[in-house]
Fold this protein.
Amino acid sequence: MGYCDACRGLPSPTNPLIACASCPRRFHAACAGVDAAAPAAPWSCDACAPPPTPPPPPPPVAVVDLSDGSAVAAHAPALAAALGNVGAVQLLLPPALAALNARAFELWAEFLAKPEAYKAAFAIADGAAADGYHARGAVAPYYNAHRSGVIYEGDALAPLLAGVDFEARVAEWRDACRALAAAVLDAVAGERGAPRGPFAAGGAFDARRGGQFHVKRTHCAAADGAVLLPPHRDPSLLSMVNHVAPSPVAPGGAGLEIYGGGRYRPIAVAGVGVCTILAGSLLASVLPGVVSPKHRIVATFDADTPRLAATFFFQPSDDARICDLRAPEKARRGAPTYAQWRKKAYGRYYKATQSRLAKLEARGEPRSQSR
C-alpha cells in the first residue's frame, strides 16, 4: 500500500497517494497540493520539479544621446518607448545646455553655502505656495526632512545673489530646460497618436508656460541605502531632474532610484551633462500607455557632500482638460480641468501627508522624520 513520503501517513479514498513522475516517492494529494479529483497528469515533486523561472529584471532606464546635436524629434520612438516601459528616460544634453547647467549650479551652490541667517532672508512665508528658501523640514516635512533649498513657481525669480546677474543667468537656464521638455512632450505626443496642438507654443500643455522648479540639497547622516525622500509619483506632465556630479556625465544616479519590475533600481548616470525625465501622473492621464513611475532618493553619498539637484515640474494651464487627448473633442469637453484635477489631487496628497505625520507622532518620532 505504501505511505506518504511527506507525512508518513497512509492513503485513503479521499486522500490518495500520487506518484512523482521523476522519482519513486509518493505523496498524499493534500500534502502535494494537488487536486485529487483533477484528471491525472504527469507530476513531479518539489525535489524533482525544475525551479520556477525568476521574473525578468526591470527594464533599464534608457539613455538617449542629444549631445551630438541631434533633434529631439529624431528620437521620438525611443522616448515614447521609454516613457511607456518604465516612465523615465535619461538625456545626454547638448553642449550648450550642459554649459548652462554648470553655470546655474555654480549659482545655486554659492547661495546654499551661505550662512543660514543669509538664506532665511529669502524664506518662504508661512502659508505661501512657493517662491523662496526653506530649511530642512520647514516645508512639507514628510518629503523635506532631509532637504533644504529653494522653490520657484512661474517666472518670478528672487535675486538670491547680488552682483552676479543672478536673475538673467537663471532665467536663461530655466527657459532652455523648458524648451527641451516641450520638445520631449511634443515628440511623445506624436508617437502616441495625440494631436500636437495642445503641446505646441501657447497650447494648454505647453511646457514653456511655467510650472515649478526646485533646487534642493539632500543632507545625509544615515546609513548607506537609507531612504531620504520617500517613494512618490509626481503630479505633473513631466519632471526633469538635473544633478551635480564629479564629472558632466558620471556613473551612478546620485541616489535617485526608479521603481519597475517589482523593485527599485538606480539610474545609470548623473551630472550637468545629463538630465532625467520622469513622466508625471498628469501625462499618464492624457496619454494612455505612458507610465508614471514611483521614485525615491536613497543615501549613496556622505554628510560632507550633500546631493544637489534641480527638478522642474511642468504643468498645463488651469483650463486644460485632463482626459485622453486622442478622444474626440466632444468627449473631452466634459472632462475636469487641470484646476479641478489639481484641487482634488492635492487634497488627497495633503490628507495622506497629515496621516503619515500623525503616525510618526504616535510613535514618538519627530514630524520631520522621513520614512
Remarks:
- The mean pLDDT is 85.
- The radius of gyration is 26 Å.
- DSSP finds nine helices and 16 strands in the chain.
